[in-house]
Write a structure and sequence with these properties.
Elements: H1 3-30, H2 35-39, H3 63-83, H4 87-97, H5 103-132, H6 136-185, H7 190-200, H8 204-217, H9 222-233, H10 236-251, H11 256-312
């Protein structure tokens, strides 16, 4: 290795050592107890059971490793909240995606994605450093960018999952609403109709109805369970559906006609969305036609004439 490559390697190792030292110092300063923490043990009653024997909630498949890196994960999670969605907003997104994991579990997953991105960037940086002798500063920036991209990919996948699930719910809503209307018309109560539809239907909306019925069985009122259903899904059609059921339960108004009207509205909205998507695709299809197919057609039409003119000359 040349002297420049040795210097680059030395600078890279020194930067890594300095970063590790700064992290250790920052962690030691963060662990410094404040006055309230020093006084708190003398103001509360302690349990006779050892804290080491208390069950610790496991958020990842690697329990022992999680207990070692849990403080780091909490700090990284708070750093993510500064630059990304808050804890409550992230919990709502996880509920909209239909995931059963907690915010801490998602943060751990995001940290893993970021670590994979950092490892990938570090591998590319080492490869570029050995092959071309690139500068250390751009390589260090490449590693950081890869780590950030890894965390953003995790968030992007969650957004895609939320969008796909909402599309499935909108596709299932008209059928579920008409089944509820048939059950109510046949003499079922709103709760009985929901239970019958839950046993019959399958899909994301049926799972949400099952969650609402579970809340009703646990003592929550039907109106409150429907409000929670609308808050979890956060779709206008489902919100109107929950409001219609709530009004029917509270005032005793006819429910079958309302459900049929809501199903028809959702179908019309889906038809309009399909027409808008078709219009956008038609406009996008004009790009290859104008810039690829049309020039080739003109060339095939003009080329024989040009050859004939050249032969005549």
């Amino acid at each position: 290795m040349t002297a420049g490559q040795l210097a680059a390697w030395g600078a890279f190792v020194g930067a890594g050592f300095s970063l590790g030292l700064l992290l250790v110092v920052a962690r030691l300063r963060a662990c410094r107890a404040i006055l309230a923490e020093r006084v708190a043990p003398w103001l509360r009653v302690h349990s006779a059971e050892s804290a080491l024997l208390a069950p610790t909630p496991v958020r990842t498949p690697f329990g022992a490793l999680e207990r070692l890196v849990a403080p780091w994960l909490d700090d990284i999670g708070r750093a993510f909240e500064r630059f990304g969605p808050t804890r409550s907003e992230l919990a709502r997104r996880l509920a909209r995606a239909g995931r059963a994991e907690t915010v801490e579990q998602y943060r751990a997953r995001q940290v893993v994605f970021g670590a994979v991105g950092l490892a990938t960037g570090l591998a590319f940086a080492v490869l570029l450093l050995v092959a071309r002798g690139a500068s250390v500063v751009p390589l260090f920036a490449l590693v950081l960018v890869c780590g950030v991209v890894g965390a953003l990919v995790c968030d992007y996948l969650l957004g895609r999952e939320v969008t796909a699930r909402e599309e499935r719910i909108l596709a299932e809503f008209p059928t579920v609403a008409e089944l509820l209307a048939l059950a109510v018309t046949a003499g079922e109560s709103p709760v009985g109709a929901l239970e019958r539809v839950r046993r019959t239907a399958h899909g994301a909306l049926a799972e949400e109805l099952g969650t609402a019925l579970g809340a009703v069985r646990s003592g929550t009122s039907l109106v409150r369970a429907l409000e929670q259903l609308a808050d979890r899904i956060s779709l206008p059609a489902v919100t109107r559906f929950a409001d219609g059921l709530s009004v029917a339960v509270e005032r005793g108004t006819p429910l079958a006609d309302v459900l049929r009207a809501q199903a028809q509205d959702v179908r019309e909205a889906g038809r309009r969305a399909l027409m808008e998507t078709g219009g956008k695709k038609e406009t996008a299809m004009m790009i290859p036609v104008v810039f690829l197919v049309l020039p080739v057609t003109v060339a095939f039409a003009v080329f024989p004439s040009l050859v004939t003119l050249r032969i005549g000359l």
